[in-house]
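re the bet — no i am not wrong, look at it urself. input seq straight from the record:
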Amino acid sequence: QVQLVESGGGLVQAGGSLRLSCAASGLTFYYTVGWFRQAPGKEREFVASTRWSAGKTYYLDSIKGRFTISRDNAKNTVYLQMNSLKPDDTAVYYCAADTTYYADLSTYTSRADDYDYWGQGTQVTVSS
């Protein structure tokens, strides 16, 4: 059973930084862990993902260069470092796990429906 618990959200001014954490349990080496976000009235949006075992990472184009996903396998934690935050980044941020085995390590999915386990979310609010 996979469990994911997010933390680190809060209120920050535009241009500021936050680091979100996703404490995970029950992950297997080939799982993909992703971050999604959902703003009021909008669909859930892929932000970034990483394989639990390998170093491949993927990002939403609009946040490349500002956000970085990383993992600490010893601590069973995935992080999302968010810099140069903008008011448009305001959303509830969710951690999720995709349990599908992809033989090709370059394969990844940005579809929320493909992720099997979700955390409860953490609110990020960026003021202008």
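see?? The CA atoms of residues 7 and 21 lie 5 Å apart. told u. also The longest strand covers residues 18-25. so pay up
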